Amino acid sequence: MIGSLEGLIVHKSPPHLLLEVGGVGYEVEAPMSTFYGLPAAGERARLLTHLVVREDAHILYGFATADERALFRALLKVSGVGPKIALALLSGMSATDFARCVRESNHTALTRVPGVGRKIAERLVIEMRDRIDPLGGSGAPPSGGVGGLAGTAAALEADPASEAWNALVALGYKPAEATKMLKGVESGSTEERIRRALQSAAP
C-alpha cells in the first residue's frame, strides 16, 4: 500500500495531477478540497494517498489531510458509493457541510452531488451517522499540510475556463450542468473557477 507521496508537481489538471517522485511520475486523483491548497506546477508537495485496485487499473487518490483521507475511506464502505462518488462528495462540499447534511438527514443537499441519488443519500445518512464524529476535523488543510518548495519544472499553459469545465465533467457533472455552473464565472484560475462553480451548487 502506498501511504503517501512527496515530490514535484509536473502537471495539474483537476481532479488529476502528475507527481514526480524519485524519477517516477505518479498519476493521482485528488478532491478539489485538496487541489485548492496545492502549490503551482513546478513546486513540491506531499500528499497522503489511498490506492484503489481494480481489474483494469490501479488508481491513486491523494489528500491534503488525514481527516480528508479518513472520510474518503469511510465513504467507500457505504453500499453503492465508489471512489468517483466519494471524490465528488469531497469536492462538492466540505467535511463540515457533509457532516451537517448527515446529522440533519438532508437528503436533498446530498443528491446535488453527481452520482448521488435518493437511495445512496439515504444510505449515506444511515451508515455515516456514527462514523462522522470519530473522523474529526473540518476538512480544511492545516498550515503546511500541502507544502510547496521552489521547483524547476515549468507549468503547462492551459485555458482555465476549459480546465474548469473538464474538471466538473470529470467529477460527474453532465456537460450541460458544468456549462450552467460556470456561467458568469469569467475570471480567476482554474481552481478559483471550480470553487465558485461548486459553491453555486452547494447546499
Helical content band: 40-55%
Q: Kindly, what is the distance between the CA atoms of the first and last residues, rounded to a whole number of angstroms?
A: 35 Å
Mean pLDDT: 84
The CATH C-level class name of the largest domain: Mainly Alpha
Total number of helical segments? Answer: 10
* Total beta-strand segments: 5
Strand arrangement across the biggest beta sheet: 1-2-3-5-4
Low-confidence stretches: 137-157
CATH architecture of the largest domain: Orthogonal Bundle
Radius of gyration: 16 Å
Beta-strand content estimate: 15-25%
H and E string: EEEHEEHHHHHHHHH
What structural category arises from helix and sheet content? alpha+beta
Quaternary state of this entry equals single chain
CATH topology of the largest domain, which one? DNA polymerase, domain 1
Number of domains: 3
CATH superfamily of the largest domain: 5' to 3' exonuclease, C-terminal subdomain
Tell the overall outline. globular
How does this structure look, described?
The longest helix is centred in the last third of the chain and has 12 residues, at 190-201. Helix 8 (160-170) crosses helix 9 (175-182) and helix 8 crosses helix 10 (190-201). The protein is 41% helix and 19% strand. A hairpin with a 2-residue loop joins strand 1 (4-13) and strand 2. The protein has three domains: 4-63, Nucleic acid-binding proteins (OB fold (Dihydrolipoamide Acetyltransferase, E2P)), CATH 2.40.50; 66-135, DNA polymerase, domain 1 (Orthogonal Bundle), CATH 1.10.150.20; 160-201, Helicase, Ruva Protein, domain 3 (Orthogonal Bundle), CATH 1.10.8. It is an alpha+beta fold.
